[in-house]
Amino acid sequence: MRHIEDLARTAQARSIPRYSSFLSDREQALAKAALDRAGCTAFRFDGGYPQAERRLVCIEPEDSWSDSPLRCVRLECRQLAGAQPPAHKDYLGSLLGLEIRREALGDIVLPADKPGTAYVFALETVAQLICQELRQAGRTELTCSIQPLEELPEFPEADRQTQTATVSSLRLDAVLAAMLHCSRGMAAELIAAGRVEINHLPASSTHAPVYEGDVFTIRGKGRFGLAALPGKSRKDRFIIEYFQY
């Protein structure tokens, strides 16, 4: 937050644009608070496409030029017949293998209608490095090229399958156990170990109430959204509808 405030003060004092590295959704919430505290209003979040999860803070005072470091690299697989194209983890692992810091990378998009093609959003210098050095993802050879942002295809919304479960109470441990298909004891252990966040804030109590629209991040397990609370079942248990990001 101090870093974002410093960027905002520099941008406003010198009327020049300033940009952060890529931020997670939690970091974006903290950045928004820091910008509000600094009295900065000339900012936006940009991840390269409308549905981006990881995004830059772009602080651009009025009459300043735009100098965004955001770039996109298009990766094309040279895959053998019948071979499966690389998955998200394969691309990310290969990129981190180049000793690229995670905050220099944005989303990695694998369009369902273009198997074997991936779009990597990155800072400008990193995008150049990817084009020069990245040759494969997993065991699949790649070709890389800079993709102009204005020529990006329209990426469809992620298809998230909603699941339904019943819980004895709308407590964090009970809901977490249902989402992870584990025991409440195991869910309690995850909470006690500091591995659970609700709406990007650490959760420390198994008794914490949950509400419709909450987002649960479980380190090492994934991220889940509580889509709806339709009511109770015939056995007087609470019905929850949720999905995994």
TrEMBL record:
MF (Gene Ontology): RNA binding
Domain named RNA-binding S4: residues: 170-230
Pfam hit, one: YlmH_RBD
Keywords: RNA-binding
Organism superkingdom: Bacteria
InterPro entries for this protein: Nucleotide-bd_a/b_plait_sf (IPR012677), RqcP2_RBD (IPR040591), S4_RNA-bd (IPR002942), S4_RNA-bd_sf (IPR036986)
Protein name: RNA-binding protein YlmH
Gene from which this protein is expressed: ylmH
